[in-house]
Write a structure and sequence with these properties.
The chain is mainly α and 171 residues long. Helices cover 58% and strands 8% of the residues. It folds into 2 domains: 39 residues, no CATH class; 130 residues, no CATH class.
Length: 171
């Protein structure tokens, strides 16, 4: 895959190893993340949205049989875990891309709390002591920065930042 932010068709580029031509793709699934050649995250967010939509219906059907705490535990295992996974990469996608995902997450939260679907969702998140999507993103970025400044990053990441720093300093 060749990453390119240009809206136009990119120039022809071929990669060959020995006599084997490597096929060019515009979309791939890597470690559960759907990457496209524009890195706009629309495909990844769409897949996540589809997954959460399915869970939303299940929460609605089971909520009368479980307590709020039990529903929150299921939320953490099914919903939060998917939202948190690699959000440091895709969480800064456009507001438009994230809007549908926010809407589905809000619906699940309101279902857990038995709130009216017309009420404002912020107090519901506070009442349940849960994070909105943007809060999950900010928390993961804060944890990354804390680990970086505390020298708790893996050696490979330290070497990468050292190499980038050398390039910027011209050494």
């Amino acid at each position: 895959m060749i990453f390119n932010s240009d809206k136009k068709q990119s120039f022809p580029f071929r990669v060959q190893i020995g006599s084997h031509l490597i096929n060019r793709v515009n979309l791939t699934n890597y470690l559960g993340m759907h990457l496209d050649n524009k890195l706009n995250w629309d495909t990844h967010i769409s897949k996540l949205e589809s997954k959460l939509s399915c869970y939303s219906g299940k929460f609605y059907r089971i909520r009368e049989y479980l307590s709020t705490n039990e529903l929150k535990m299921i939320h953490f295992s099914l919903v939060y875990s998917h939202l948190q996974y690699a959000i440091g990469a895709w969480g800064s996608a456009t507001h438009t891309s994230l809007h549908r995902l926010n809407t589905i997450h809000n619906t699940i939260i309101k279902t857990i709390s038995w709130s009216s679907f017309r009420c404002h969702v912020t107090p519901v998140y506070s009442q349940l002591n849960l994070f909105k999507l943007e809060d999950i993103h900010q928390l993961e970025i804060a944890k990354l920065m804390h680990n970086f400044h505390s020298n708790r990053m893996p050696n490979t990441v330290d070497r990468l930042f050292t190499a980038v720093n050398c390039v910027h300093q011209g050494t």
